[in-house]
């Protein structure tokens, strides 16, 4: 016997009409460069990235799938394009003092996106 507020699994199925979309596949769409509905988080991220203090870190928290990683990566790419490419560092084993590796500053060749 079905209770008054009980749902059947078929009641939970949602069908989307494909005719409402004006594209063939999602590959035809431009990627979203901004966060959607995350204004407070975006402002906090942008503020935090402007703090230029040694040892200052950012922590992003929230449900998966809301665009934290995508927005952060896009924003960092935009900032990095305006900055000088930092040096690469190579640490070499110090045979005289194994607890203090030798740091070698190497000029970066080019900016590559990883």
Structural commentary:
There is one protein chain. The chain has 114 residues and is α+β, with helices and mostly antiparallel strands. The protein has one domain. It has two helices and two strands, in the order ααββ. Strands 1-2 form a two-stranded antiparallel ribbon. It is elongated. The model has no long low-confidence stretch (mean pLDDT 85).
Radius of gyration in whole Å, from Cα? 24 Å
Helix content: 10-25%
Mean pLDDT: 85
- Helix and strand content put the structural class at alpha+beta
Largest sheet: 2 strands, antiparallel
> In DSSP terms, counting alpha (H) and pi (I) runs of 4 or more, how many helices?
2
Topology, element by element:
Elements: H1 39-50, H2 68-80, E1 88-92, E2 102-106
Antiparallel strand pairs: 1-2
Short key terms for the protein model shown above:
114 residues; alpha+beta; two-stranded antiparallel sheet; 22% helix; 9% strand
Structure described in brief:
22% of the residues lie in helices and 9% in strands. The protein is α+β, with helices and mostly antiparallel strands and 114 residues long.
